[in-house]
Design the sequence.
């Protein structure tokens, strides 16, 4: 089989059915673009949830009337817990200093320090937070709330809500990608089918003069691959533009940690191009199998 | 012409077991035809029946042998199974029963992957020429050579040569629509014989042509046959068959009704 001849036949065929070729390529482009977004978003959400989990603390807030003895008693209870990695006492003065650093505008006009003393407890796993919180709240005499404690927060509800939203977004994107992938495959298949129909005379002559199976099928296979490749490369280009131009603007506002990131762009680009080629091959293969038996 | 058409031949019937007198073997399987008729055979049809689904019988138990270098007409009314024989010979169809042997090869045992090789050795010419309309006469011939993996230099040499031989040396760059019916059929013949096939099958090659042009085409086919190519020609052209006095195989409703050495149309 002469590769050059097969390639020139494929290009000739692509030109002949330009409108369907463009339609198929555009669908691949959209599908691959959304796939790229999904990969980026999905891996970013995973990375972010790990980050959030690492940050989850159990915070024990004391009332303004709590005595040092009451606070020390709670501290002793926390110290005996095996699931705790580290705990820190944050005095109301220290809390105000931190607050002043983070939100200077908020604390500028305060006439007194409203922040309570507290303990920040870091557990071995974020999953222990709820248990630790519950046990602290029942560590008083006869299982009551120990005196001096105003409230205990485990940060779980907020993180769970955010993660839930993240997985819904991921699911929606995933469904979108599947639908678009199917649409792209079918459109490529249809493009190849039209191409086979437009060139049926040529195919008949090819068979007649003894062209091999692959010589007849080669150009159509290549046509599908070209559609897949063009669509996916354009999608990678658009994603790159988005990454370089739009993403910094968005992430500048919502992200303040360096350890939250999506999958490396090079890997993403490779998976998208790979998926595009696979789509092209699947689309062509589907049609050739059904409509072009030599 | 002779020089251009000398060339490759299909494998001979070397697989025939000559020791067995009554049941010759091809590819290790017995044939019902007499053994002596197979020496030098180009085409063997052995008890071939073809039934199109659901129950249209195109051929009924047809057997004949065509020797190398023969010129054979296949005649019969429309629907008598003539064209089915051609489609069976290029393995476009499979027989329902019976065996077909071309150049010593049992087509029933030929793998699908070998069919292109068979078609390079069994060239076809059709009533409707089957030329590519968007390619010139030269390109049509060159296309067949390209498809078969011929080298560019060889194509540049062979294509003009064969077109000159069929009398179209001055019209190589004409598109099919710029050529007359006879000229288009000459291009089609040039394409078929450019690689010197040992067997040429023609399905009513003069069916669309006027009598004078038909004579020209028949003369061309006769010359090709004289150069050693076996020709099997399906036709309705009574005058031509009567004039040429070649072997005639007649079909009637799928049955072989006559096989004459120097026969006429009826």
Sequence:
């Amino acid at each position: 089989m002469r590769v050059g001849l097969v390639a020139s036949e494929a290009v000739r065929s692509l030109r002949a059915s330009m409108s369907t070729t463009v339609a198929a390529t555009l669908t691949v482009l959209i599908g691959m673009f959304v796939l790229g977004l999904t990969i980026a978003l999905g891996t970013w959400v995973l990375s972010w949830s790990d980050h959030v989990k690492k940050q989850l603390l159990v915070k024990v807030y004391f009332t303004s009337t709590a005595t040092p003895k009451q606070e020390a008693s709670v501290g002793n209870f926390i110290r005996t817990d095996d699931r705790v990695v580290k705990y820190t006492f944050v005095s109301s003065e220290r809390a105000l200093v931190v607050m002043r650093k983070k939100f200077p505008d908020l604390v500028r006009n305060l006439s007194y320090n409203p922040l309570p003393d507290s303990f920040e407890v870091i557990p071995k796993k974020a999953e222990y937070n709820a248990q630790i919180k519950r046990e602290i709240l029942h560590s008083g005499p006869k299982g009551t709330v120990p005196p001096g404690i105003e409230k205990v927060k485990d940060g779980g509800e907020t993180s769970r809500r955010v993660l839930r939203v993240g997985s819904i977004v991921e699911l929606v994107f995933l469904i979108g990608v599947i639908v678009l992938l199917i649409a792209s495959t079918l459109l490529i298949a249809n493009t190849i089918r039209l191409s086979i129909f437009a060139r049926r005379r040529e195919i008949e002559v090819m068979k007649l003069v003894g062209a091999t199976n692959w010589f007849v099928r080669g150009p159509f296979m290549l046509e599908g691959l070209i559609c897949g490749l063009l669509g996916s490369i354009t999608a990678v280009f658009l994603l790159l533009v988005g990454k370089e131009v739009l993403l910094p603007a968005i992430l500048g506002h919502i992200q303040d940690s360096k350890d939250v990131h999506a999958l490396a762009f090079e890997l993403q680009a490779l998976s998208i191009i790979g998926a595009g080629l696979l789509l092209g091959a699947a689309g062509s293969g589907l049609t050739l199998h059904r409509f072009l038996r030599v | 012409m002779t020089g251009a058409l000398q060339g490759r031949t299909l494998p001979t019937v070397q697989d025939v077991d000559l020791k067995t007198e009554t049941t010759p073997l091809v590819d290790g399987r017995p044939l019902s035809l007499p053994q002596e008729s197979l020496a030098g055979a180009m085409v063997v049809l052995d008890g071939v029946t073809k039934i199109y689904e659901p129950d249209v019988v195109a051929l009924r138990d047809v057997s004949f042998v065509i020797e190398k270098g023969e010129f054979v007409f296949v005649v019969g009314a429309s629907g008598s199974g003539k064209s089915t024989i051609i489609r069976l010979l290029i393995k476009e169809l499979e027989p329902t029963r019976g065996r077909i042997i071309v150049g010593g090869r049992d087509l029933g045992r030929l793998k699908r992957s070998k069919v292109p090789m068979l078609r390079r050795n069994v060239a076809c010419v059709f009533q409707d020429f089957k030329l590519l309309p968007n390619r010139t006469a030269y390109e049509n011939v060159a296309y067949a050579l390209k498809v078969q993996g011929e080298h560019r230099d060889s194509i540049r040499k062979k294509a003009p040569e064969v077109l000159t031989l069929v009398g179209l040396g001055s019209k190589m760059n004409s598109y099919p629509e710029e050529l007359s019916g006879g000229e288009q059929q000459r291009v089609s013949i040039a394409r078929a014989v450019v690689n010197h096939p040992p067997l040429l099958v023609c399905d009513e090659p003069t069916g669309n042509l006027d009598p004078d042009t038909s004579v020209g085409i028949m003369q061309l086919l006769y010359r090709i046959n004289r150069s050693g190519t076996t020709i099997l020609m399906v036709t309705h052209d009574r005058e031509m068959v009567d004039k040429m006095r070649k072997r005639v195989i007649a079909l009637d409703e799928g049955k072989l009704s006559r096989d004459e050495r120097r026969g006429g149309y009826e």
Notes: Confidence is low (pLDDT under 50) at residues 1-23 of chain B. The longest strand of chain B covers residues 41-52. Chain B touches chain A at residues 90, 112-113, 115-121, 124, 130-133, 143-144, 146-149, 191 (CB under 8 Å).
